[in-house]
Amino acid sequence: MLILITGGSKGIGKSLAREYLEMGESVIIIADGAQPLESAHAELKTISPSVWSYKCDVGDSQAVRKMAEKVLTEHGCPDILVNNAGFATYRTFDGTPYEEMERLIEVNLLGALRCTHLFLPHMIKRNSGHIVFVASIGGLIPITPCAGYGSAKYGMAGISKMLQYELLDYDIHVHLFCPGRVNTSFFDGETFRRRTVRPEMEKAMPVERASRAIIAMIRKNRFFTIIPASLRWAYRLYRVFPLLLDPFMKKVMSERVRQLRKDEEKHQAKGDG
C-alpha cells in the first residue's frame, strides 16, 4: 500500500509514517518546513527506502495542486490519505489576529479539503481507498479558548460524516480520528507557553498510541475513534445529556477564558515594563 501523510515531519504524522514503514508499506510524507522534512525523511529512510517526501504548505491552494500532480505522476494515487497537518494557537477569538484566524482555517480545514478533493477522483476511478481526517476532541466538544482551531476541527468532523455516505458506492472508507492531548510539539508555541499551567495539561498520551489507534481504525474500517477512553465517555455524555452538562461546560470554559485574559494582561504589562 501507498500511504500519504500530511504533517508528516513530526508528531502523529511522523510516528504514523514510522509504523507503516516498519510494516513494509510505502509512505509519502508532506510538510511545509524544509529542514524538519529533510530530517524526518533521512530518519525514516533508515527504516525503509520506500519513503518519499514533498515540501508543500497545505494552506496554499496552488502548492497543494502542484504536490498532488507530482505525487500522481510519480507514484499514482495513494491507497490511504491521512489529513494530519495542523496547528493551533491559544487565544480568544477576539484576541486572534485576522490573518492568524484565516491561516488556522486554511491549514487545518481547507488543507484537508484540498488534498481530499484532488486525490478523491482517482480513488473513485479505482473504486478503493481510505481517507483519514485527524481532527480533535475539540472538534466534537467546544473546548476553548482556541475558537479558530476548534471551528476548523468541527468542519473536519462535518465533512468526514458527509463523505462517508457520499462514497458508499465506491468502496472508499472515511475515518474521523479525534484524540485528546498527545505528547508532541503541538503545544510548544508561544501562546501555549504563556498560559497558566493546569493539572490536565500535565497528562498527555504517547504519540505512538495515537498513530497505532489510526492504523487500527483503518484496518477495522471503523469510521470514528476517540482516545483516550475518558474522553470517549465525556463525548457520549455530552451528546446524550447536553442540557445537563451545559452548566458545567459554561463554568469550566468561562474560567479558562478569564484566566487567559489575566495571563495576557500580565504578559502585556511585563512587555510594557
Descriptive report:
This protein has helices spanning 11-22, 34-45, 61-74, 98-126, 147-166, 190-193, 207-219, 229-240, 242-272, and strands at residues 2-6, 26-31, 51-55, 80-83, 129-134, 172-179, 224-227. Helix 4 links the parallel strand 4 and strand 5 (129-134). Helix 3 runs parallel beside helix 4 (98-126), helix 4 (98-126) runs parallel beside helix 5 (147-166) and helix 8 packs across helix 9. By secondary structure, the protein is of the alpha/beta class. 54% of the residues lie in helices and 14% in strands. The protein contains 9 helices and 7 strands, in the order βαβαβαβαβαβααβαα.
What keyword list fits this structure?
seven-stranded parallel beta sheet, globular, 273 residues, alpha/beta
Short note summarizing the structure:
With 273 residues, the protein is α/β, with parallel strands linked by helices. It has helices at 11-22, 34-45, 61-74, 98-126, 147-166, 190-193, 207-219, 229-240, 242-272; strands at residues 2-6, 26-31, 51-55, 80-83, 129-134, 172-179, 224-227.
Oligomer: single chain
What structural class is derived from the secondary structure elements? Answer: alpha/beta
Number of H- or I-type helical stretches: 9
* Percent range of helical residues: 40-55%
Reconstruct the topology from this structure.
Layout (H helix, E strand, L loop, with lengths): L1 E5 L4 H12 L3 E6 L2 H12 L5 E5 L5 H14 L5 E4 L14 H29 L2 E6 L12 H20 L5 E8 L10 H4 L13 H13 L4 E4 L1 H12 L1 H31 L1
Parallel strand pairs: 1-2, 1-4, 2-3, 4-5, 5-6, 6-7
Helix pairs in contact: 1-7, 3-4, 4-5, 8-9
